[in-house]
Automatic annotation (TrEMBL):
Cross-referenced SUPFAM superfamilies: Thioredoxin-like (SSF52833)
Listed name of the protein: Glutaredoxin-like protein DUF836
PANTHER family assigned: GLUTAREDOXIN-LIKE PROTEIN C5ORF63 HOMOLOG
Species: Nitrosomonas eutropha
A matching Pfam family: Glrx-like
Domain of life: Bacteria
InterPro entries attached to this UniProt entry: Glutaredoxin-like, Glutaredoxin-like_YDR286C, Thioredoxin-like_sf
């Protein structure tokens, strides 16, 4: 199996101009120096359904394979570490 397939995939649902979103994205970038995972950032304002789902709770960190929300507003390191374990 190639290593790329083993990477954990996360989504940060956020919006432009959101300082909490920027903080979570920066923290995840720093954590990539230690842990193997990848993440994408999706702007909820470009999708009506996502805006309805997450509007006031951004940023939301979502685990793709497990289809579950790990945390919102702030990066929960305990939940993040449990996810990677």
């Amino acid at each position: 199996m190639n290593n790329r397939a083993e990477l954990r995939k996360l989504i940060v649902y956020g919006r432009e101009g959101c300082h909490l979103c920027e903080d979570m994205i920066a923290s995840l970038g720093d954590l990539q120096k230690e842990f193997r995972f990848e993440f994408v950032v999706i702007n909820i304002d470009k999708d009506e359904n996502l805006t309805r789902l997450y509007n006031e709770r951004v940023p939301v960190l979502f685990a793709v394979k497990e289809k579950k929300e790990l945390c919102h507003y702030f990066l929960d390191l305990e939940a993040f570490n449990a996810y990677l374990a």
